[in-house]
Specification:
The chain has two domains: 98 residues, Ferric Hydroxamate Uptake Protein, Chain A, domain 1, CATH 2.170.130.30; 151 residues, Chitobiase, domain 2 (2-Layer Sandwich), CATH 3.30.379. By secondary structure, the chain is of the alpha+beta class. It has seven helices and 18 strands.
Length: 304
């Protein structure tokens, strides 16, 4: 018995030699660290991962990390620490495949292909931003936390007018369901991309959050009014910067519950939707929470 106890102690001290090491490699993940809603990139690259890696463990290999609350909350990365600046509160938040996690970074296990994004931001006006577009083409390729959700493009414009979005998703490795299979998927069991004007989308359970402002939707833009509603684009304090009624599009991600997110490719009118479809791609969306799209241009939301 003494020999067995001694062996167990040695095993605990030298975990790698007793089958408790890092485990087999699981591939690579993308790691991005930014500040101020993605406006400034601090760290970017790929990391080899193994079966025991968590979001926090991978970050700790690339940066000087300080934690609080027993390691469950990241307080600072490379010296940039959360706290108050005047009456505004700043902290670190992380997303895996564009989705906010309900568990801490020390508990979130990673899989090959995941995209991890840490951002240091002011959260006074929006304590939660449940989903973002900046990790595209995720979550359409690898899903979230081991769940690979079916992908649906829901077109409110008419037959074939949403094909640019479907082709883009196919090109990046997603597999959108054909129209004939949509009725086989229960609500809340697929990652949806809604394509249409705001007047067409506004009665959808997820999309209707865009009328309620960032404290409810997590998106620093909202639509005001019915019919041809105005797109109101906000700064990070929730203040109105511009109000547009024609030719403006919006690409944003919403997540009213714990299921798959709903993305919207929408606009004030058909011209705005076309502008948004033209900006639906990895280069335009990378490291952005959401984007507004005046025709022939792009504005990162929240606006400065």
């Amino acid at each position: 018995m003494l020999r067995l106890a001694a062996a167990l102690v040695l095993c605990a001290m030298a975990a790698a030699g007793c089958g408790l090491g890092p485990g087999e490699e699981t591939g690579t993940i993308d790691l991005t660290v930014t500040r101020d809603y993605g406006r400034e990139e601090l760290i970017e690259g790929t990391e080899e991962t193994n079966a025991s890696d968590t979001v926090l463990r991978v970050l700790d290999r690339r940066a000087d990390v300080e934690t609080r609350y027993g390691g469950g909350f990241v307080q600072s990365i490379d010296g940039l620490a959360g706290g108050f600046e005047g009456d505004r509160r700043f902290d670190w938040f992380f997303y895996v495949n564009g989705v906010e996690s309900s568990v801490g970074s020390a508990e979130f296990d990673l899989s090959g292909g995941d995209r991890v994004w840490w951002d240091y931001r002011d959260w006074t006006s929006a304590m939660r931003v449940p989903a973002v577009v900046g990790s595209y083409p995720e979550p359409f390729v690898h899903g979230f936390q081991g769940d690979e959700w079916p992908v649906q493009v829901v077109c409110f414009l008419g037959t074939d007018l949403c094909d640019p979005v479907t082709r883009e998703l196919t090109d990046v490795g997603a597999e959108p369901l054909p129209r004939s299979a949509r009725d086989d998927v229960e609500p809340g069991e697929s990652t949806r991309v809604l394509v249409g004007t705001w007047s067409q989308l506004r009665l959808d359970e997820a999309a209707e959050l865009l009328a309620l402002g960032p404290s409810r939707s997590g998106v620093f833009a909202r639509f005001d009014g019915r019919g041809r509603a105005a797109l109101v684009v906000l700064d990070e304090t929730g203040g109105e910067v511009t109000r547009e009624r024609a030719g403006w599009g919006l690409i944003a991600a919403l997540r009213p519950g714990d299921g798959p997110p709903t993305w919207v490719v929408t606009g004030t009118d058909s011209a705005g939707v076309r502008a948004a479809m033209g900006a639906f791609g990895p280069e335009q969306l990378r490291d952005h929470y959401a984007i507004a799209v005046p025709e022939g241009n792009r504005e990162v939301i929240p606006l400065p």
